[in-house]
Write a structure and sequence with these properties.
Layout: E1 21-24, E2 27-30, H1 40-45, H2 53-75, E3 81-85, H3 95-109, E4 113-116, H4 122-132, E5 137-142, E6 156-160, H5 163-172, E7 177-179, H6 184-198, E8 207-210, H7 212-227, E9 240-243, H8 246-261
Parallel strand pairs: 3-4, 3-7, 4-5, 5-6, 7-8, 8-9
Antiparallel strand pairs: 1-2
Helix pairs in contact: 3-4, 3-8
């Protein structure tokens, strides 16, 4: 929820990593050094099989704890950052790739670090734009059943086994989300952020949807179906900012930072 989505491997040929690579959490596997083909999340959540999980799940807590410790430690001193989500399947010659690259560059020039899921497609584009402009380019990868490593434009990369640990890092260390066109992974992150803002778990956190043609149908459905039927409050749809302009997207983020510096004492965010 750019973001390294779980909607399949990319085929854009943009990776410069040699060999066949798979990540198992922080561990990198190449060539014939592969595991059984399942992910750590899958093994944690799958209740089928014998009752051995009764004895092994408590030990998994230590691995989960280590992911939070590593993430918090690596990202603690990262400057103000914006997470860019989008499809891993976007080819390098697509206009959305160009938009992601321009967005990454503009955010870097505004003094903001860029965080993505670290994969190919739109994620690579945003990391590339930030890196080429001298900004801080960060990638938070995830263990997936298909091979996919961090793109080569990442300055600081962390690989996670568990989606929930990774999601915490996106939210905790980002000042805003910008979502370019993407699939289930992008939608997952989008609606998680919306829920956190709506329920005031996080405040003054802009969510920008880049690409009006792609996102307008979703926004219309939220307004016509969810809002009209009372499933969300009037005005909740206004938590989303839709734009086709890189400049406007960056302005929305920067303006939110300016507003935050003027918040009266006693109303600060809490985590």
């Amino acid at each position: 929820m750019a973001h390294q989505e779980s909607d399949g491997p990319a085929h854009n040929g943009t990776s410069r990593n040699p060999g066949s690579v798979k990540f198992r959490g922080p561990v990198q596997l190449r060539r014939d050094r592969k595991d059984e083909g399942t992910t750590t999340d899958e093994r944690l959540l799958d209740e089928r099989g014998p009752s051995d999980w009764l004895h092994t799940d408590p030990w998994r807590v230590l691995r989960i704890q280590s992911e939070f410790v590593e993430g918090f430690g690596a990202l603690a001193e990262v400057p103000r950052a914006v997470t860019v989500f989008g499809s891993a399947r976007t080819p390098v010659d697509h206009p959305e790739y160009a938009a992601g690259r321009a967005l990454g560059a503009a955010l870097a020039e505004a003094g903001l670090a860029v965080i993505t899921g670290g994969g190919p497609g739109v994620m690579e584009a945003a990391n590339r734009g930030a890196s080429e402009s001298g900004g801080y380019s960060i990638g938070l990868g995830i263990e997936l059943p298909f091979e996919q490593g961090l793109n080569d434009w990442v300055d600081l990369g962390i690989n996670f086994r568990y989606f929930f640990a990774r999601k915490t890092m996106f939210v905790k260390y980002s000042q805003a989300f910008v979502c370019l066109p993407g699939g289930f992974g992008t939608l997952d992150e989008l609606f998680e952020a919306l829920t956190l803002v709506q329920t005031r778990k996080i405040t003054r956190f802009p969510i920008v949807l880049f690409g009006s043609e792609y996102w307008s149908g979703l926004v219309d459905w939220i307004r016509m179906s969810l809002e009209r039927s009372g499933k969300i409050s009037a005005g909740d749809v206004d938590l989303l900012h839709v734009t086709d302009s890189v400049e406007e997207a960056v302005r929305i983020v920067v303006d939110s930072q300016t507003a935050e510096t003027t918040v009266p004492t006693g109303t600060e965010d809490t985590w």
